[in-house]
Amino acid sequence: MGEQDNRPLWQPSHTGDLPITRFAREAETRAGRALGDYDSLHGWSVEDPAAFWDLLWDVCGVIGDKGDRAAIDLDRMPGARFFPDARLNYAENMLRRGDDADALVFRGEDRVESRLSWRDLNELVSRLQQALADFGVEPGDRVAALMPNMPETIAAMLAVASIGAVWSSASPDFGPRGALDRFGQIAPKVFIACDGYYYAGKTIAVADKLREIVAGLPDGMAVIVVPYLGRADEVAASLPNGRSLDAALASYEARPVTFRRMPFSHPLYILFSSGTTGVPKCIVHSAGGTLLQHLKEHHLQSSVVRDERVFYFTTCGWMMWNWLVSGLGMGATLLLYDGSPFHPSPEVLFDYAVAERMNVFGTSAKYIDAVRKSGLRPIEHFDLSTVRMMMSTGSPLAPESFDFVYEAIKPDIHLASISGGTDIVSCFVLGVPNKPVWRGEIQGPGLGMAMDVLDEDGTPMASGKGELVCKRPFPSMPIGFWNDPDGVRYRAAYFERFPNIWCHGDFAEWTRHGGIVIHGRSDATLNPGGVRIGTAEIYSQVEAIPEVVEALAIGQDWEDDVRIVLFVRLSPGATLDDGLVARIKSAIRSGASPRHVPARIVAVDDIPRTKSGKIVELAVREVVHGRPVKNMEALANPEALALFRDRKELAD
């Protein structure tokens, strides 16, 4: 262990002013004991979850009727219920402000800039709500959206939620089959889409795609086309029951938004699994569970308060969009961006941070690594004095990326690597504002989340790599899967491996600081010689090499065993010669272990990924073994899979 691993990269200061500190004081009163540090507060939150979530409701000022019971059947997983007597509306909790301060700020690459005040947002939601009601939208009906991350998308979602209807969205780069694999399962009453979008400086029309999608959705469905390229009327005219947003809202005047309060467990969102191994699962999330979990993560884990300015680089097809929206519930301003984060240059998001006085900068591990490899050192060019927190998710954040943030972006910043998923529309492990940041580590489990690491037999592991699990219920567990009336698929997805325990499918280990390191997905774990190896352990070594832009590792069946094959995408001008192969193997051997060293290293021009940017080891493994990939439409670049088929380098 090097010297840098013996001291934290960042230490919190002024912890007495943090929301989590004020919350802990209230918790001590309810618990009747001292909860002086995060670990003791977390311990109480999982020992007495009913008291914890009840206090969170009060501290965050949730609007609604709480009822007398905070939780029942906490010994059942699934089966536990939180706030079974409560009634609330998610949108009512988001629209608690109506003043002229910024609610939403938007940039669409270098083409579009706009902003909505809280007053503007309430008025737009009101008009959308009236239109949806006249389209016949009622509680429980689904509204689907193929939209960029723009203000109109958030307003439409809040209008849907205000009625008690269910929102489901994807980004406009989805192809017709990918969109229909998702929306076709849930039979929306209304479909909302943009008239096109911008990416990497290109203008991308979607009219032909929309016609194909609408043809595969229910007859009689209303279609609203939102202007982004200025072609909404034209595109709407080409669609059955189509109308532009302006036409749809023309007859409605703004008035106070009405909110239909529904049970805590009433559905709010349908999110979709990546679908790389079959038709995507439709994961149904509750309004109350989503609201409470997100308020906790914004306010307690991220210290977000009223008037802060929160950014997350995301599309509407990734759960981080749903997470970002909940920042409105703290009275924060949301900074939205749609398009390529590198157009017209790598500086674009840092320019945005400076111009809009960003406080929370959320992005992906891949983005941080790409900035590092671009040669940009933001610390030398940008005044990031307002940015107090940087968040990263999507894949494990490599130790070298931790170094880069503190050396080249900002030395005094709370860097929070976070991990959870679409399955829970939130995080299991994430930032802790009153604990140090250690190189390569996620700081700890979220409050109320009874995390552990288990071995193959279900025994807790104080050290070593195993399955990341949650041992007690939490509010943002899905209500279930759509079209799974008996819950068979839902239970099989999370609870079959360890009865009455949520098994998330991540390969992880505790650190000596009480943090977590995630080594990749369990189903992508490599098993050469029967030893389990996480793919992220390899990537963190390989992607630190300047010539390697990105890597993907699989286990190839070979001579009655498994051998590791590493695919690398190289930077322009680089060649995978014997010298580079030797350096890659040496880095893996010294930084991980001899068992991690691949038997074969192969250069490829591209690496397939999902729409949210995650590489797909399982799909590549299937192609290498000559097996079909079940759902190509789930991939952002399905053509890349052809690069892995029949490779002569893998035949001997």
Automatic annotation (TrEMBL):
Residues in Acetyl-coenzyme A synthetase N-terminal domain copies: 38-93
Keywords assigned by UniProt, alphabetized: ATP-binding, Ligase, Nucleotide-binding
Domain named AMP-dependent synthetase/ligase: residues: 97-473
Keyword ATP-binding part of the UniProt annotation: yes
Xref: InterPro entries: Acac_CoA_synth, ACAS_N, AMP-bd_C, AMP-bd_C_sf, AMP-binding_CS, AMP-dep_synth/lig_dom, ANL_N_sf
Tagged with keyword Ligase: yes
Molecular function terms from GO: acetoacetate-CoA ligase activity; ATP binding
GO biological process terms, semicolon-separated: lipid metabolic process
Domain AMP-binding enzyme C-terminal positions: 541-614
Pfam families reported in the protein's UniProt record: ACAS_N, AMP-binding, AMP-binding_C
Family named by the database record: Belongs to the ATP-dependent AMP-binding enzyme family.
NCBIfam families: ac_ac_CoA_syn, PRK03584.1
Protein name: Acetoacetyl-CoA synthetase
Protein's organism: Bauldia litoralis
